[in-house]
Amino acid sequence: MGPGRPKPFRRPPASGSDQALALSRRRFLGAGAAAGGVLAAGALPAALAGGNPRNLPPNVPAWSRYLGADVDAHPYGMPSPHEKDVVRRSVEWLTATRESSINFTPLYALDGIVVPNGLCFERHHGGAPEIPPEDHRLMVHGLVARPLLFTVEDLMSFPPESRFYFLECAANGGMEWRGAQLNGCQYTHGMVHCVQYTGVPLKTVLEECGLKTHGKWLLAEGADAAAMTRSIPIDKALEDCFLAYSMNGERLRTEQGYPLRLLVPGWEGNMWVKWLRRIEVGDKPWYHREETSKYTDLLENGKAREFTWVMDAKSVITSPSPEVPMRRKGHQVLKGLAWSGRGAIRRVDVSLDGGRNWTTARLDEPVLPKCLTRFYLEWNWNGEKVYLQSRAMDEFGYVQPQFAELHKARGVNSIYHNNGIQTWLINPTGEVENVRLG
Amino acid sequence: MCAWAERAAAAALALGVALAAPAAGQRYGLGTPATAEQIAGWDIDVRPDGAGLPPGRGTAAEGEALYMKRCASCHGEFGEARGRYPALMGGRGTLASEDPVKTVGSYWPYATTVFDYVRRAMPFGHAQSLSDDEAYAITAYVLNLSEVVGYEDVMDAKTLPAVKMPNRGGFVADDRPDTLLGEPCMRECRGAVKVIGKARIIDVTPETQATSGGEPARSPVAAGAAADAARGKALWQQCAACHSLEPGEHRVGPSLHAVLGRKAAAADGFDRYSRALASAELVWNEENLAKFLRSPQDFIAGTTMPYAGMGDEADIRALLTWLRQASQ
Predict the structure, then answer these.
(1) Closest-CA distance of chain A to residue B111, Å
(2) What is the reported pTM?
(3) Is A306 an interface residue toward B (CB < 8 Å)?
(4) If you count Cβ atoms within 10 Å of the first and of the last residue's Cβ in chain A, which end, N or C, has fewer?
(5) ipTM
(6) CA dihedral B74, B77, B80, B85 (to 10 degrees)
């Protein structure tokens, strides 16, 4: 999947500044360029404060008088209907079909570091199959003493462990290599999620099969109609690869690989084979379609890097962002997410002037390796233009680069592994937009 | 046995606990042996050195007709691609250009990978439906589209690994990190800010309301046929990659909205019908649709629908039951 030649969408209608501000964050994309309007100091626009006065003090609303829903109304609970617009969204022009396609996590609407299961972005290559768990098997064979078939129940009988990891598609931000293209942090950065997985270390299962010493590579294969395959070096497999059957306390969601997914922590999402049905141990890589024709990074000289596995340190400010415009002047709390596939985030700096000067943000606990990390910065907005940037650093001294550095090192045709520093422009109207700085 | 162990064993017996006895070397005794036959059924991967290639053979000449039937509706008759499906020809000499085109001929380093992928995942929507000979023949045809092999060259377990791909030397090891490491600048790190691009000007961001994944509204299912319709809806997944049920929403194949009772090759705004279907002079009633679903090529020789056919009569009935309701 790559940055396609954009098909023009209907241009949003222009609107006046007051009107633009009156829009809720969910209508942000419909708001056109607002000209010249300025927020009154400390004023909260009435439409955003919202609410029906009859439900506000000193009045007593109906829900305080009459009974609410019974305990059986929602055997599986869903978010409040008032949050119905917080959903995964896709970009229609990106891919040929919806079965081999991608959608995006609404990062702008999330708090903390755990992404709810139903909001974790999806990337399928042959659709998401519904597999009865009793009809699923994991086959482990090749350079092992005992080729074995495992039922899901077998795998659940190994001593379980739980781990938090982020998963990022290598193409996250792929549409932004040449410049600012999509006006929303859901689309520029939403091919990432982070959940708590439960399962068994792959090492345990390989040892159960009697891994042979000349086994140097694994081939992991999915049971979907794409029969997704990736080659994985044995050192990584034994270091921290993991077979997960649960996420955030419940069984994996269908679209995340139910009933079994391979985790390859810190490495590109394409390797995290869903609906995992087979692991073959071999002595060489397989050079299959995904690791040659797809997830290789084309450089300016026409050569391509292969086996570009690790996801380098990256960050994005989720609020404010194009989806979360400014609501008032004065004191603000900026929120963002940072992550590194090499280990833990050590520091995040934020710039209010397009990268000229930087202030270190506060990292929220917990700060875990190969996991989303939440950061905050308190600041004051006086209503002027602000060029927001964030810059992540990990425990190994890796510093998230500016786009100019990335372009110098790789050109603009890499598609994958774009971890350049994002700029959000805050306009005096309060609108926030995706811009690229020269 | 020491006294402690004896007591523990006695306690285990008293509790009715049986200690599992894993096979030699196994720590947990989980899993069952995978037989050679079971492994053979799933182990379809192929490596560049030829490991995993099955017996069989094929040439581009043999693959051409098959390609037209099973591949051309997405990839184009000459590999030029339809819509946003991948092109299978051209692109040589473009990798260092402004607009690189990555194809089998311009980019893929190994010919074995083409066979592996075709056999495991193609045609899109009906994977693992090709025989090994067919996979060899289609691989040969795709390689021939890029002029990597000749029209009559035989591709088999011996010749395929020996094919020299044009971009074989085009890959280098990952040498990241390729940008600044260490302590970054904190003060006066750059000059004046200059905006060189705005996403709002490009204007390709989806409208807020354009949510993904929402099921379009469908007609209610008649009670008597509910089970059939539910089964049919699941079967529809085999069609949904290429056909929509929304009026006028054409994909690789035409929209099937209101298909029942419609003349064949007559969906408004769809201009990619095969000559065979366009000249077939038939109306899509349930009888004709059943024949077509059973074996598209047998019913309309020369149709470009790549689907190989639905073997189970009950499946065909279920799909038609659902289609009757959902296509209205």
Answers:
(1) 10
(2) 0.82
(3) yes
(4) C
(5) 0.88
(6) 0
Q: Do A87 and B121 touch (CB under 8 A)?
A: no
**Which residues numbered 34-73 in A keep a CB inside 8 Å of some CB on B?**
none
- Give the total residue count for chain B: 328
Task: For helices B111-121 and B132-145, give the axis angle rounded to 10 degrees.
Answer: 130
Least Cα separation, residue B171 to chain A (angstroms): 5
Q: How far is B41 from chain A (nearest CA, A)?
A: 11
- CA neighbor of A274 nearest in space, from A119, A416, A126: A126
- With contacts defined as CB-CB under 8 Å, which chain A residues touch B206? 9, 29, 89-92, 187
Residue A304, classed as helix, strand or coil, is strand
Asked whether the beta carbons of residue B33 and residue A8 sit closer than 8 angstroms, the reply is: no
Q: How confident is the model at residue B223 (pLDDT cuts 50, 70, 90)?
A: very low
Report which residue type is found at A340: S
Lowest mean pLDDT among A257-266, B54-63, B277-286: B277-286
CB contact under 8 A, B113 and A219: no
* pLDDT score at B291: 85
Is A304 in CB contact (< 8 Å) with chain B?
A: yes
Cα B197 to Cα A282: distance, rounded to the nearest angstrom: 48
The position carrying tokens 């270190």 is: A360
Q: Do B193 and A181 touch (CB under 8 A)?
A: no
Whether the upstream peptide bond of residue A285 has omega within 30° of 0, thus cis, is no
pLDDT tens digit sequence for A58-114: 999 999 999 999 999 999 999 999 999 999 999 988 888 888 899 999 999 999 999
Q: What angle in degrees, to the nearest 10, is found between the helix axes of B60-70 and B132-145?
A: 100
d(CA A281, CA A263): 17
| Among candidates B85, B190, B207 on the partner chain, residue whose Cβ is nearest the Cβ of A96 | B85
User: What is the chain B residue with the closest CA to A226?
Assistant: B121
User: What CA–CA distance (Å, rounded) separates B46 from B139?
Assistant: 13
Mean pLDDT of A373-400: 98
Contact A302 B44 (CB under 8 A): no
pLDDT band at B23 (very low <50, low <70, confident <90, very high): confident
Do residues B217 and B246 make contact, with C-beta atoms less than 8 angstroms apart? no
* Contact list, A9 vs chain B (CB under 8 Å): 203-207
CA dihedral sign of residues B196, B201, B204, B205: positive
Is cis: bond before A58, omega within 30 of 0? yes
Q: Does A260 lie at the interface with B, CB-CB under 8 angstroms?
A: no
pLDDT for the residue numbered A42: 47
Q: Do A302 and B170 touch (CB under 8 A)?
A: yes
pLDDT over threshold 80, residue A388? yes
A213 at interface of B, judged by CB pairs closer than 8 A: no
